[in-house]
Here is the input.
Amino acid sequence: MSFDIQSINIQVSQQAEKLTLLRQEIGKVLIGQKTMVDRLLIGLLTGGHILLEGVPGLAKTTAIKALAQALDSKFQRIQFTPDLLPADLLGTMIYVPGTGDFQTRKGPIFSNFILADEINRAPSKVQSALLEAMQEKQVTIGDSTYKLDDLFLVMATQNPIEQEGTYPLPEAQLDRFMLKVKITYPKPDEEIQVLNQALGAVAPTTSPVLSEADILSMKKTVEQLYIDEQIKRYILSIVQATRNPEDYDLKKLKPLIEYGGSPRATIYLAIAARAEAFLNGRGFVTPQDVKDIAYDVLRHRIIPTYEAEAEGLTSENIIDAVLQAVPVP
Here is the structure.
């Protein structure tokens, strides 16, 4: 097994240069927000989709657009509104009077990178149409089914400061997103760079530096990263502790958790930890990789009780307690 790890380490180090090029190109237009970029790359390398929560103006559109341009891929931003229909997203059949036939008009979902802006502003039937496309990687229009591209990433955003006229995503649908990422304001030194960039005469742009084949090759490498049995048990214990906290000397959490992590939490925690290890230049997963990604994988999968909310506790407080209690291998 050590020989396998060594060969994977060589592959990872060879691809690290390409990953550095990609980061540098995105950095031309995006200042700071390292966590958001890293999570986008994890989604890209694993085929998982991302739910992003943050106030307006934090460069969410800039980040995914820069990533698409750096990969010479198709990008679509879809503004979700209360009057949006599934056909506006997926496409529809158009009647052609000249021939008397129906012609398929594909919707914006047929791109490589989708920014679903303010997903909670659209009604549930539109949300479900998007989530089905994310899950199945295909879309049915009329009698025909169309496969989406191999390189396909959805980044949906939620605005946490306006709740009027919104349709919150049900917990079962939230579970479809691999990661829920919270982004915050930039640091003062980063914000002054943003200001200087905005006041410049020429806006910076990104150029293609990697191809789709490069990314697909990286995805194959990530799938080969080594996860020791002890790490798998560690991941399982973390998720189990959110369901049965009393088994891990966390009886105080029992009345605070309505529902713990689903089996998807176990799977996504392992997959995302692999990608995190890849971003850190390693061919094997460590417990720290699991800890670093645990909040983004679990925060939308742990449902606190009313009692927890009354005490001002969130799913992140529960994750804190779990990571402290579960023994690290």
Observations:
- Residues 2-27 form the longest helix (26 residues).
